[in-house]
Amino acid sequence: MLFKKKTAEAAAGSKRFHVKLTEQLPEFGQITIIVDTATGVNYVQTWVGTGGGITPLLDPNGDVVVDDVSTD
After folding, report:
1. Residue 68: what pLDDT?
2. Nearest 5 degrees, angle CA 63-CA 64-CA 67?
3. Of 64, 29, 32, which is closest to residue 50 (Cα–Cα)?
4. Strands 51-56 and 17-25: what pairing?
5. 20-63, pLDDT tens digit by residue?
6. CA 46 centroid distance within chain
7. Is 55 in a helix, a strand, or coil?
8. Long-range contacts of 63-72, Cβ-Cβ distance < 8 Å, separation of 24 or more
9. Tell me, what DSSP letter sits at residue 62?
């Protein structure tokens, strides 16, 4: 199946992903940092012309950047 049905949580209006930053780069197109609100993992999404991609954002040590998503 190409598209899955929304879960009850998704249907209730909770958002799994949050756009943290969007930048337009003249030479490279658009770069967006997206955060998974369930895990805190940051992703880099690129869009150039008619193509794009997404990958986890890494820190200088090569570790995945993870935001604190704990609820107090």
Report:
1. 94
2. 125
3. 29
4. unpaired
5. 999 998 887 999 999 999 999 999 999 988 899 999 999 999 99
6. 11
7. strand
8. 65/41, 66/39, 66/40, 66/41, 66/42, 67/35, 67/40, 67/42, 68/40, 69/35, 69/37, 69/38, 69/39, 69/40
9. S
Task: Round to whole Å and give the CA distance between 45 and 41.
Answer: 13
Whole-number pLDDT of residue 40: 96
Between these two residues, 30 and 10, which has the higher pLDDT value?
30
User: Global pTM?
Assistant: 0.74
Token code pair at residue 69: 């998503």
Q: What is the DSSP string of 5-22?
A: PPPHHHHTT--SEEEEEE
Q: Measured between alpha carbons, how far is 67 from 2 in angstroms, rounded to an integer?
A: 30
Among residues 44, 71, 37, which one has the least CA distance to residue 59?
44
